[in-house]
Amino acid sequence: WRVPANLIEDAVLLKAEAWQTWAESLRAADKAAPAEALSGLLEWMPLASVHKLLFGFLDKRAEWWAWAAGRADPLADAVAEQQAVANLDEARDVVAEMWSEPGFPAALAEFLPMLAANGAGVKQDAERAGVLADLLEQARTESHWAGLQAIFLTAKSEPFVRKPGAALDKRLGAERAARFIELHYSLAERVLRALRQLQDQYALRLNRLALTAGSDLLAHYQALKRERDGLDFTDAEWLALQLLSDPDESAALLARLDARWKHLLLDEFQDANPLQWHILTAWLSAYGADPERPTVFMVGDPKQSIYRFRRAEPRLFELAGSWLTQNFAAAVYRQDETR
After folding, report:
1. For residue 131, with 0-12 CB atoms within 10 Å meaning exposed, 13-18 middle and 19 or more buried, which class applies?
2. Alpha carbon distances (Å) from 239 to 95, 231, 244, 247, 278
3. In the predicted model, is pLDDT for residue 238 greater than 60?
4. 11-14 long-range contacts, Cβ below 8 Å, gap at least 24?
5. Separation in Å, CA 218 to CA 55, 56, 72, 75, 213
């Protein structure tokens, strides 16, 4: 194996070709999973948004490679970890679970006559009572979910505000009015919890589909570059990190760097990306406490970071400053003047 010979400085045309030929490749029988993932994404968003999402993943491929290194099935691991973070299985029927809770249908049944009674003075509550009566008589499925939300939540997914007052007391009686408000907020909170779970499931499914389609697009894009004996800047960064992390290769590379560089000036560091920082720390950490190691001067302002589209991460500035303070005894000089 050798490093590709051609540096591709502008990959716009190559990415366009990759998108077209990748879409055609999904007709193959062994591409059922990415083909279904792409189809699933297109059910939820327009083609332009899917294109932007998948090429956003491709642009951050170095971060994906770093996370996937050493994993037998990175895609399955990523999906499993996301479900663990959300504490939710994508396949769970959260609406059915809510309806199956013994207290939930009973509380709705208790709430209904109060809602209907209040509908004598509040037209919207009369309409809500009609919807709730239908829901309680039917088999509850996710298709009835919108009706349940409309009974308790606003368009902004917040519980309707209900306050005690003379008019409410007159329609329901003071004690019943208090119970009506209590039930409303407790039921609204349960509906809101189910809504949040559904939103989490949406995010889980979106990530699974994007990773499935994106990882296949990435493999296709990398294959196109290999056919042209080319690499781009992200590939070059990744190869540099691999070389510096390889015990068999790093010694010779570090010796060459040590012979050439005695001082590092890291300017505009707020526009560095995580992979670049890993490259630097792989190099600098190898010196340990060696007094002959290079000196380092880092300059930057996180508020001036303008290259997020190139994977810049302004939060690295504070992290790198702390690392240099701890490992290189760096002093911090803050400048709050501009010229």
Report:
1. middle
2. 48, 10, 9, 14, 12
3. yes
4. 11/232, 14/221, 14/224, 14/225, 14/228, 14/230
5. 9, 11, 17, 13, 9
Cβ-contact 221, 231 below 8 angstroms: no
Structure tokens at 266: 């890291």
Task: Determine the Cα–Cα distance for residues 278 and 263; give it in Å rounded to an integer.
Answer: 18
Tokens of 217: 């697009």
Q: Is the pLDDT of residue 328 over 60?
A: yes
What distance in Å separates the CA atoms of residue 191 and residue 278, rounded to the nearest whole number?
45
Return d(Cα 322, Cα 318) in angstroms, integer: 6
Cβ count within 10 A of residue 324 = 20
- Kindly state the tokens that stand for 256: 């060459």
290: confidence class by pLDDT, cuts 50, 70, 90: confident
Closest residue by Cα to residue 268 from 304, 296, 292: 304
Q: Which residue has the tokens 């990882």?
A: 215
| Residue 276, Cβ density class (10 Å: 0-12 exposed, 13-18 middle, ≥19 buried) | buried
- pLDDT tens for each residue of 26-75: 999 999 999 999 999 999 999 999 999 999 999 889 889 988 989 999 99
* The CA-based dihedral angle spanning residues 223, 227, 230, 236, taken in that order and rounded to the nearest 10 degrees: 30
Helix (H, G, I), strand (E, B) or coil at 173: coil
201-218: burial string, b at 16+ Cβ within 10 Å, e else: beebbebbbbbbbbbbbb
Tokens representing 194?
């189910």
Q: Which helix (H) or strand (E) holds 327?
A: helix 316-328
Helices (H) and strands (E) in the chain, counts: 15, 4
Q: Report which residue type is found at 109.
A: A
| Cα–Cα distance list, 1 to 4, 5, 226, 229, 304 (Å) | 9, 12, 12, 12, 41
